[in-house]
Amino acid sequence: MVTITRAEYDRVHADFRGVWTTERTDIPGWESIRHQYLGKRTLVRDNALLIEGLSLTIVEEGAAQ
After folding, report:
1. Average pLDDT in the chain
2. Residue 8, H or E segment
3. Residue whose C-alpha is closest to residue 1's, from 44, 37, 52, 41
4. Where are the domains of the chain?
5. Which of 6, 5, 14, 21 minimizes the C-alpha distance to 44?
6. Residue 62 confidence (pLDDT)
7. What pLDDT is stored for residue 8 in this prediction?
8. Model's pTM, two decimal places?
9. Sign of the C-alpha dihedral, residues 4, 10, 15, 20?
10. What is the per-residue pLDDT for 46?
11. How far apart are CA 60 and CA 44, in angstroms?
């Protein structure tokens, strides 16, 4: 799990961060897992897609880690 601050996330170029908005009906069982992806912030780091709540945690400045 990668943990970064909101400020660090915001400093990443927009080409490497975003919010998952794509419906993936090509993935078997998508309906049962879509809540884990849709609307979550994403980050590409070291050629990997990190997804908030699965492999990425974004904390506010000064929040206990």
Report:
1. 95
2. helix 6-11
3. 52
4. 2-59
5. 14
6. 74
7. 97
8. 0.86
9. positive
10. 95
11. 20
Distance CA 29, CA 44 (A): 24
Output phi, psi for 54, to 5 deg: -110, -50
Token digits of residue 61: 């400045």
User: In the sheet that 17-19 helps form, which strands lie side by side, from edge to edge?
Assistant: 17-19, 41-45, 48-51
Confidence of residue 61 (pLDDT cuts 50, 70, 90): confident
- The count of other CB atoms within 10 Å of the CB of residue 40 is 17
Extract the tokens encoding 36.
Answer: 């884990």
Q: Which residue has the tokens 């912030």?
A: 41
Identify whether the C-beta of residue 5 lies closer than 8 Å to the C-beta of residue 58. Answer: yes
Residue 64 pLDDT class (50, 70, 90 cuts): low
CA dist 32 and 10 (Å) reads 30
Amino acid letter, 37: Y
